[in-house]
């Protein structure tokens, strides 16, 4: 941390989430990232940065060693960590985006704060072009599948807002879209019977870092009647592409579209 009264021209940055770390590197600030969460994996260069936190817990002793000028955090799940950081004298920017529009705005905010406004706008523009390209291709699909996204398996948790948007943009219909505006995971818990009744054609899953186990899904009572389970249309997705609301969401969007387009091609002829 810089001495009081000095001008910070190249702030030292600690990133407590993967999307903020990826963004800082994309903005050309990788050399200024001095601390990261253990869950930060993109780009590969970030793995050389000292780990100062998990996702909900931060090591104040390790953070003191790297002495950041600013800490970038995300969501209400890091509220306690942010409270500790502020109490310890750190400057914290806590973002809380839940939709694609909010994600693009968050990129702009970080870029502006770190004096990389033009670079941030360029990244947002590139993301928007890729989003528009997928939307255009999705509009040409001959059939539209019903899609269930599972964020966690015990209890069953449906997709957050931006995931629901990705499914729609990719050419699918989110079977639990009515839950998409629920900002916390407990508000998106669904019953097994509800999934069976929804009869999704495709199941997408990203279990917050835990490996997806399709055999466990097939063993759930009554799930053999679900088209996605019956037909083997169950697909794991990398968490960094769908659970981290940042630059990589467009990678997730393109991946989901490939899955949807392949399904549609087989059934639209």
Characteristic terms for this protein:
single chain, 269 residues, alpha/beta, Rossmann fold, 2 domains, 5-stranded parallel β-sheet, 11 helices, 41% helix
Would you kindly provide a brief summary of this structure?
With 269 residues, the chain is α/β, with parallel strands linked by helices. The protein has helices at residues 18-26, 60-66, 79-87, 100-113, 117-138, 161-170, 192-198, 214-218, 227-230, 239-242, 249-267; strands at 13-15, 33-37, 51-53, 70-74, 92-95, 146-153, 156-158, 173-174, 202-205, 234-236. The mean pLDDT is 95.
What report would you give on this structure?
- It is built from 11 helices and 10 strands.
- The chain has 269 residues and is α/β, with parallel strands linked by helices.
- The protein has 2 domains: 96 residues, Rossmann fold (3-Layer(aba) Sandwich), CATH 3.40.50; 126 residues, Nitrogenase molybdenum iron protein domain (Rossmann fold).
- The chain has a 5-stranded parallel β-sheet, with helices on both faces.
- Helix 4 packs antiparallel against helix 5, helix 5 packs parallel to helix 11 and helix 6 crosses helix 11.
- The longest helix is centred in the middle third of the chain and has 22 residues.
- The radius of gyration is 20 Å and the shape is globular.
- The relative contact order is 0.12.
- The model has no long low-confidence stretch (mean pLDDT 95).
